[in-house]
Amino acid sequence: MGFRLEMLGVQRSFGATKALRGVTLSVQPGEVMALVGENGAGKSTLMKILSGAIPPDSGEMRLDGAPYLPPNPLHARKTGVAMIYQELALAPHLSVMENIMLGIEPKRGPLINWRETRSRSVAALEEVGLDHVAPETPVRRLSIAQQQLVEIARAVALECRVLVLDEPTSSLTARDIEKLFALIRRLKAKGISIIYISHFLEEVRAISDRFTVLRDGETVGTGITTEVPDEQIIAMMVGRDVDDLYPRSSRTPGAVVLELEDVSGISKPSSVALQLRRGEILGISGLVGAGRTELLRCIFGLNAVASGKIRVGTFSGTATPGKRWAQGIGLVSEDRKTEGLALGLSIAENLTLSKLSGLGPWRFVLPSRQRAACVPWIKRIPIKCHSPAQRISALSGGNQQKVAIARLLHADVDVLLLDEPTRGIDVGSKAQIYQLIDDLAAQGKAVLMISSYIPELLGTCDRIAVMSRGRLGPARDRDQWDERRLMAAAIGQDS
Amino acid sequence: MTEKADSSLARKSNLLNTNWGNILGRFIALIVVFSFFAILVEDGKFYTVRNLENILRQSCVYATAGLGMTMVIIAAGIDLSAGSLIALSVVVVAWVLNINVTGPDGEPLSIVLAHPTAAPLIAVLAGILASTLAGLANGLMVVGLRLVPFIVTLGTMGMIRGLGKGIAEERDIYPPEETWINSIMDPTLSRAGHNWQILPTGVWIVIFGVVVASLLLRYTRRGRHIFAVGSNEETARLCGVPVNRTKLFVYTASGFFCGVAGLMQFSYIGGIGQPTTAVMYELFVIAAVIIGGASFNGGEGSIIGTLIGALTITILYMGGQQMGWPKWVQEMVIGGIIIIAVAIDRLRHRKAV
Question: Per the domain annotation, does A248 fall within a domain?
């Protein structure tokens, strides 16, 4: 039998970074192909290319033997390639049937043929097991699981040939997952090809016929799911050596500066306990969505704490970011652009915003002192820029991130909460940031660091704990971990 | 890096990308607009002392209300109730001056006659206080109800206007006696016999207000917080900036400055408590702030820029009048200038980034 969809040596770069270095993948009619890989392996770029949102730089794609190069997402959908993203793409105020037929509305003259819209929606809803939902219901009244089924119904109404599901179970309950799997099997029986993207090996085992592993934008392996053991798949996913990017000075952990007891957030994290000492770097590993960011935000007072105790020195009341800064805790946000930095303001404004006191008499702030306060950090880290008065949006991503970290140094904090501190920046800046983190720990500062890049955690941290589905595992010394164990713990296969 | 390079790091900046370069450009535009009318209006009537003074006097209300509006817009907000706040202050001033007290002979006596010194002072404070409190209410609703400032102030624009009309019982209030409040905006330069104070009181108030507001925005923690909240509220929160308090402050400040502008308006319209005055002024004030270089996205703007903006609008308005342009032409020209000013800003930004 020929392949339904084939990708051969597909490449794609963004500026200097190669997101995809050569992806080869194929799926047969009526087959479920699982696509697995670490965060940042290139799965989302791959999806964008398949959906027609961006074109590949080179490589070949074929759909049922014919060349496939969709110029835009609508074209891709109309040729039969449908995507279900993690973040659902429905218009919440429109009805179920309007959503299902969006973009392919049957017309009678210039008007929408509502009778046909309705009948075709009902047929699609029946197929996905939503026959009890009236097609006139506004989508926002449905549960997340139902909304996801509406999206699948939309793909069914299009008579799609290939259905791509990105982490479809991330917000579903166990019962809904079972329903979804049953639906996938029905669609498969109809001859639809399914590409199932997931982190979770247990799901891959439950639903897929074959799997393909993506790492650093490359296909590194493929096989029949039942024939390959978990360990081998995990080895394919990580398979890297820790290089010498990571400096490590000798340091001795001191007193406990931050202590969490049974801390739970609104939905995540759930009952987390940890102790952070001076002069140590504690890493938190895990998958995107496991609740790591929420944990840091709870500690910093940005997210509400539902229960449990967070102790900073002798203080254990409710916190606001303002209080935390005053207690000597600083946070670097994972999202540099929307939260980490005010892109319209200068380097000096961004860097000193955490501590404007001491930059002038009384409550005054002198711009010259603001700029002068930045100079030592610009030199030390170093940050490449013309002057502290330069707009931060003019800097490269790496240098922007260094400003976000320098803000903690300016405020002279004792505890640094770093959320993906090296995400999306060049290797040179990464090395400088690793050096800086190491220096700080050697000076006796405490660092709590989240990263999705395992070699980075193994390279920089003294202890590492893994978060999975909102729960934080025990923090163990780094030599008790390796990439495989971390990955296994992250996907819930911890021994 | 050499020592020399280090020390220059803190100072070096490109003139075109600095605040001063920015303001210089606007100032040049102001001069161009002024020259345009100076040349075209016959007999040099446009640059007589009298006319120059009139331009200053006319721009005072917009400039004063613009001080608060600048802070609001830098904080990524908007205050559509500015015109109504001005009118509220006007009405409250007149209302207080109209209070009757019991005179020494037991007969009711106008407060102005009973306490000639205290009465105007009380009236002024009451006018400013009323507007300030209304501004505080705007802020409380923006922060407390988490509503979009546009919606909140669109609502209070009507509510505050209504309140003013209610206090005035839907009539103009005529105070029994003239007080010094009436003469705040009186011309001084063009009056026979040079006045010791050189400029009209209102102009001095504007100058004082500009200095204070500029210092506050540029050189205080509160000022830096206003910019931070407007540029990126999330970042501000992350950095421990009291976001809600900052928002409360800017709306209250807008109320305060509108209250002061109300005193000027009261004098300007001849000392009458007219509840229907200053209608649509919020649009002129917002236009002055935007022409002055503020961005609706927040994080940008300056007091000096707003002052230039207020003068530009006044010159366009008065120039058009003196050229004998019909009203519809004036309105179209001012509208067009606003769009052009913002479009130029956009282009400049795209180049800078």
Answer: no
Residue A340 at interface with chain B, using a CB cutoff of 8 Å: yes
CB contact under 8 A, A320 and B224: no
CATH numbers and ranges of domains, chain B: 22-352 (1.10.3470)
| B228 and A CB contact within 8 Å | yes
Between strands B108-110 and B100-102, the pairing is: antiparallel
Domain that holds residue A466: 256-490
Which of B239, B297, B302 to probe the A interface (max A CBs under 10 A)?
B239
Compare all CA atoms of chain A with the CA of B11 and give the residue at the minimum distance: A387
A378, A382, A385, A386 alpha-carbon torsion, rounded to 10°: 60
Whether residue A403 sits in one domain with residue A365? yes
Min distance A339 CA to chain B CA atoms (Å)? 5
Q: Does B1 touch chain A (CB under 8 A)?
A: yes
Chain A residues whose CB is inside 8 A of the B225 CB are 356
| Same domain? A299 vs A401 | yes
Q: Does A175 touch chain B (CB under 8 A)?
A: no
Residue B88, min C-alpha distance to chain A (Å)? 33
Token pair belonging to B145: 């109800």
Tell me: do A84 and A196 sit in the same domain: yes
Q: Give the domain CATH number at A341.
A: 3.40.50.300
Q: Does A308 touch chain B (CB under 8 A)?
A: no
Task: Kindly state whether residues A171 and A290 are assigned to the same domain.
Answer: no
Q: Within this chain, do residues A262 and A232 fall inside the same structural domain, yes or no?
A: no
Alpha carbon of A56: minimum distance to chain B alpha carbons (Å): 28
Same domain for A302 and A229: no
Pair (A365, A228) in one structural domain: no
Residues of chain A with Cβ-Cβ distance to B11 below 8 Å are 387
Task: From chain B, pick out residues whose CB is under 8 angstroms from the CB of A302.
Answer: 237-238
Question: Residue B10: which of A302, A388, A407 has the nearest Cβ?
Answer: A388
Q: Nearest residue of B to residue A361 by CA position?
A: B220
Q: Is B206 exposed, middle or buried (0-12, 13-18, 19+ CB in 10 A)?
A: buried
B221–A356 CB contact, under 8 Å:
yes
Domain count, chain A: 2
3-state DSSP of A435-456: HHHHHHHHCCCEEEEECCCHHH
In a domain, A303, yes or no: yes
For residue A244, being part of any structural domain is answered with no
On the question of a cis peptide bond just before residue A73, with omega within 30 degrees of 0, the verdict is: no
- For residue A317, is it within any domain? yes
- For an interface test with B, the pick among A345, A352, A369, A413 (most B C-beta atoms closer than 10 Å) comes out as A345
Q: Identify the helix (H) or strand (E) that includes residue A265.
A: strand A256-265
With an 8 Å Cβ cutoff, is A412 touching chain B? Answer: no
Tens-binned pLDDT, residue by residue, of chain A (495 aa)? 589 999 999 999 877 667 888 999 999 999 999 998 876 678 888 988 999 989 999 999 999 999 999 999 888 988 999 998 877 788 888 999 999 998 888 888 888 899 999 999 999 999 898 889 999 999 999 888 889 999 999 998 988 999 999 888 877 777 888 889 999 999 999 999 999 998 778 888 999 999 999 888 889 889 999 998 877 887 787 765 445 578 888 888 899 999 999 999 988 899 999 999 999 999 999 988 889 999 999 999 999 999 999 999 888 888 899 999 999 999 999 988 889 999 989 999 999 999 999 998 988 999 999 999 999 999 998 898 889 999 898 888 889 999 999 999 999 999 999 999 988 777 778 888 999 999 999 999 999 999 988 888 998 999 999 999 899 999 999 999 988 899 889 887 654
Of chain A residues 353-372, which have a CB less than 8 A from chain B? 353-354, 356-357, 360, 363-368, 371-372
Question: For the range B154-163, what are the long-range contacts, defined as Cβ-Cβ under 8 Å and sequence gap of 24 or more?
Answer: B154/B80, B156/B80, B156/B81, B156/B84, B157/B80, B157/B81, B157/B83, B157/B84, B157/B282, B158/B84, B159/B84, B160/B81, B160/B84, B160/B85, B160/B87, B160/B88, B160/B134, B161/B83, B161/B84, B161/B87, B161/B88, B161/B275, B163/B88, B163/B134
Q: Are residues A224 and A289 in the same domain?
A: no
